[in-house]
Specification:
The chain is globular and about 55 Å long. The chain is mainly α and 229 residues long. It has a 3-stranded antiparallel beta sheet. A two-stranded parallel sheet has the order 1-5. 63% of the residues lie in helices and 7% in strands. It has 2 domains: 82 residues, Orthogonal Bundle (Arc Repressor Mutant, subunit A); 140 residues, GntR ligand-binding domain-like (Four Helix Bundle (Hemerythrin (Met), subunit A)).
Length: 229
């Protein structure tokens, strides 16, 4: 795992109580998991999180339950919670093989269904605005991980193939791959590739959309391979 070229965030997240408390706690723990502040496989102690965020046990347990549903946290009876282990190289290769089989075709198919409203949804989900979100790199990284997952999910949704969508969602692909390497290169280059996919969609060109998606997935794979060295 690599953790370079990003600004260190404060050790204690600030919970904004004006919103849903459990939701804010969830976002704070999610950011720590994405940025590897909580290392893969490490134990997550509820009491420690209660002290860190200055909240009760209830929102902590609600947040951990949600993260468990996303495959990022594991709960063992009588033992407690721990961060999900890092994916293996074999699993990594299998995930990218699956993505290359399914997502370029889905991008091509989605092109025919896109109207102005759906294009706007994709533009918002693509995360391009993340370039200007501020100096908190850990928060920016975790936000982009979520936006990347939404962007790809929306493309498959607009392709109108629920089996492909369910298959990809079941793997929690994007959350796991973003935990391989915490580095600004992962987001900056991916943002450029998202823009290329959006350009193909805007042009109504299914072949270009499929090609741009394939290039994006292949580049994503190549960016993350050093995590296994």
């Amino acid at each position: 795992m690599q953790n370079a070229d990003l600004t260190e965030a404060p050790s204690t997240a600030r919970i904004q109580r004006a919103n849903s408390l459990a939701g804010d706690v969830y976002e704070a723990i999610f950011a720590q998991l994405m940025s590897l502040r909580i290392a893969p496989g490490s134990r997550i102690t509820v009491d420690n999180l209660v002290k860190e965020f200055n909240v009760s046990h209830t929102p902590i347990r609600e947040a951990l339950g949600r993260l468990e549903g996303e495959g990022l946290v594991l709960k063992t009876h009588l033992i407690g919670y721990r961060a999900a282990p890092q994916i293996t190289r074999r699993r990594f290769d299998e995930l990218y093989e699956l993505r290359l089989l399914l997502e370029p075709a889905a991008a091509a198919k989605a092109t025919a269904t896109l109207d102005d409203e759906r294009l706007t949804v994709l533009q918002e989900a693509a995360g391009v605005m993340a370039r200007r979100e501020g100096k908190d790199e850990r928060l920016r990284y975790s936000n982009f991980a979520r936006q990347d997952a939404i962007f790809h999910d929306k493309i498959v949704e607009f392709a109108q193939n629920e089996l492909i969508r369910e298959t990809l969602n079941h793997q929690h692909t994007h959350f796991h791959i973003f935990r391989l390497m915490y580095h600004s290169r992962v987001t900056e280059e991916a943002l450029d590739e998202h823009e290329a996919i959006l350009a193909a969609f805007s042009a109504g060109d299914p072949d270009a959309a499929a090609k741009a998606m394939r290039v994006h997935i292949e580049n994503s794979r190549d960016r993350l391979l050093p995590a296994f060295e």
